[in-house]
Each structure stands twice: as C-alpha cells, then as structure tokens.
Amino acid sequence: MQTALQVLAEGKLLGIWPVKMVGPAVIYVDKDDIVYVVEHNSGMLSVLTLDGERLAHWGDPAFKSCHGIWGDSHGDLYVVRAGPWGRRRRIVKHVRMG
To answer: With 0-12 CB in 10 A as exposed, 13-18 as middle and 19+ as buried, what is 54?
Structure first.
C-alpha cells in the first residue's frame, strides 16, 4: 500500500499528499478542481481536493484493475476496467447525482 502521492507538474514536485492508496494509476481533475485517482491494484477510486484531502473512497474491489478515468460536461465519470482474463476492457459510467 502506498501511503503518499507525489504531485508533479512539468517535472517539478508540487507537493506530497498523505493518502493511502493501492497502486494509484491515473488522475483526472474535473472543472471544479476535484481530483479523481483510480487505484489500479484495488479497483477503488479516491476523490480528493487539490490539497490532497480525501473526500470519498469508493469502487468495487472485485474489479482489481482500473486503467483510466475521465469525465464529461455533466459531471459523470467513466472508468476503464479490465474484464475477466482474456476479455476486453469495459467502460463503466458513474452518473453524478444532485
């Protein structure tokens, strides 16, 4: 388990966020500056502020391999997950409520 996430921009260290994650893989920042980090080795998603404060942590550990994340103009999120061994990846849409 990783206990900190280094934040870089153009090769320069901007800070270190003290958050526990299992294999952080891809980061997406939405228009409201909310940071989403998919955890490749746990199937979970961390939701953080730009200062690294965790707002939420959710997902499905049954999907241990998240390969990507992005959002649309409605605030909905799309997470790329691997299928069972030898199967194609799939995109899971998470609809923003409220």
So the answer is: middle
